[in-house]
Amino acid sequence: MDIPPIFQTLGISLGLGLLVGLQREHVAKHIAGIRTFPLITVTGTLAAMLAGMYGGWILAAALAGVIAILVLGVAVEIRRGEAEVGITTEIAVLAMFLVGAMLVEGPRSAAVAVGAGVAVLLQLKAPMHRFVQRVGERDIRAVMQFALITLVILPVLPDEEYGPYRVLNPSNIWLMVALVSGIGFAGYLLHKAFGDRAGTVAAGLIGGAISSTAATVSFSQRAERTRQGASIAVVAIMLATVVSFVRVSVEIAVVSPTLLSRAWIPLALMIAGGVAVAALFWFRTKGESASIREPDNPVELRPALIFGTLYAIILLAVAAGHDLVGDRGVYAVAALSGVVDMDAITLSTSRLVEREGTINADTGWRVVFIALVSNLVFKTALATALGGRSLGARVAAANAALVAIAFALLIFY
Q1: In terms of Cα–Cα distance, which of 263, 131, 285, 125 is closest to 200?
Q2: Helix ranges restricted to H, 55-169
Q3: What is the pTM of this model?
Q4: What digits encode the pLDDT tens for the residues 232-261?
Q5: Torsion region of 388: left, alpha or beta (phi above 0 gives left; psi -120 to 50 gives alpha)
Q6: How many CB atoms are closer than 10 A to CB 269?
């Protein structure tokens, strides 16, 4: 038997109220608990239903009544000396009343998400407070810089093509900056969460999320200083490289589904190869643990501007190379730019594949792979220069396996 829609709405309202009420009852807050919150949410739902029949004043009056009851309840608690510092529960009461009303007139899925989100947010009080206590001035600056890049600058840039080959779109260029900054920022947050307590696997994954090249530098310097642990440094470097392959895959997926449909199998094979090589070296580490040094802020405005400029230059260079010399010109640009930055060549190629088919998908994935090979060679040179012969030989052997896989795919796939 089908449940009438009105009872479905009331049931969802009751359930959301019980969810938040359970959480509040658990922390022993007197003003509202497991009985009061369901009543408040259902009141919001009933008020919205009646407002649809008799006018919006009913909903406004019900909200005013809830506010008056809250004020009276707080006053009574103050008089009894039971009042707690903070207004979290009171705000939650108002939010759940509005959630109940939104179940009637607004998108039901949004109302359910908000109601569940309120419960989760209330439950995460202790972890969130601990996180804030660990946050320093540098971390606040990183958050604000990320907000500046994504929420302030991006919306005001023009969404039009300029320059030769009509490939320079300010909004698109900065969107790529925001994407790369977001990935780096996620790695930065992971480092803040794990820090020097990270084991080998976590250190490699975090390093790759921030920058696989920077991780190679960090782990190579550590191996050189300790004179022992070249094997564990290789594991961390290879894991960072694997994450860089995943990072490339994510960037392609976001910018060019067309390219991803052609590139996902080669990328999956590269990721599998990297995991296999890392696992091989892992069994030789004898329980050692890697760490990554404190990373620089990945969302500073100056590096963002530099990346945006680099991305625009490579975008223009790839388009010009393809127009003037054909695929060979694009491959030459990829080989050079892969040494400097994988993100820029990946995103620019993806953009040109997706944009009116300037480059076809088959050429596009090969461009990315040539850049990957170039980047692997460069990181091998870095490891040798910074970590010494022992580390250099191990990284060279590991990266040689990946280069062999890449060349096999370029020739036969």
Answers
A1: 285
A2: 57-80, 88-105, 108-123, 125-134, 137-147, 154-156
A3: 0.67
A4: 778 888 888 898 899 999 999 988 888 999
A5: left
A6: 16
